[in-house]
Amino acid sequence: MKLEESSGYKKLLSAIEYDEKQSPNMHNYREKIQWIIDRAKHYAEVTGIEAAIILNTWEDRRNYWYMNYYQENNQPLLTGATVRVFDTQDDLMDSVGKSGFRCPMCNGVSKSPYKCDSGSEMSKGKRCDWNANGLFGTLGKGVFVFVKDTMASGTIFMPLAWE
User: Where do the structural domains in the chain lie, given as residue ranges?
Assistant: First the structure.
């Protein structure tokens, strides 16, 4: 299927055309759609999944403004040491193992890849509860994972098995 004929593209284009009419010259809307297309094509090259399917999935999951949803933090390039791509969820779980995840704030070991449950004391009785989805994310110490069979993705604390 051609990307421009996909339901995801049509939904996104409709939102952009609406914004162009409502707030012309507020943003470079066409630059944003090109960034999204280029990113979907990049994901297709790396994963072997059609770009149209990737964009359809992103659009199906998007529940807030596209200008905020589509950005480097949510759809990073699938390259480098802080990105891992897996065929299946089982492959991811096998790779991570059972040793836990390194909290980027307290450096403790968390059972959760998203929220610190290490029990490390940060200050007078306050335990670390750092969240990978918070304002400061993983402080650049996490890893972005993409699972092909579910097209699930996100940034998690660094698994101890990968340190």
Answer: 1-75, 77-163
